[in-house]
Amino acid sequence: MLMRTDPFRELDRLAQQFFTGPGTWSRPTPMPMDAYRTGDEFVVEFDLPGVTPDAIDLDVERNVLTVKAERRPNRTDDVEMQLSERPLGVFSRQLFLGDSLDVDRIKADYDSGVLTLRIPIAERAKPRKITIGQTDGAPKEINA
């Protein structure tokens, strides 16, 4: 369903583990996600706390879904920052969707900092029955 084709992700993870010693915190992915299939749809959920819905951009080109989000500061310029651990700026992720998904009918909802995408399974990818003719004239159904 969802094709993972980011060859450098594991290399980045290993390099981050190597360069951050024990006891140090590594910065989490600014756009963590879960992806799963339920029934006849594929669901992808992105955690985007502090992002307003108008700062999220979704694009589909061929079978590539791009999610861009901008987390903007919610403070004025006259503050003196003491600690800043929450990443700001524009973040994006690309998902390579398989041919078995119907990219023309993607639905997106945003609630409580979670962007949920629902991607239906394409009709051509769903199981169907095929009738086989027999020489005795009685058709027989099997699952394909």
UniProtKB/TrEMBL annotation:
PROSITE patterns: SHSP (PS01031). Pfam families: HSP20. Residues 24-135 form the SHSP domain. InterPro entries: A-crystallin/Hsp20_dom, HSP20-like_chaperone, Small_HSP. SUPFAM superfamilies: HSP20-like chaperones (SSF49764). Belongs to the small heat shock protein (HSP20) family. This is HSP20 family protein. It comes from Saccharothrix carnea.
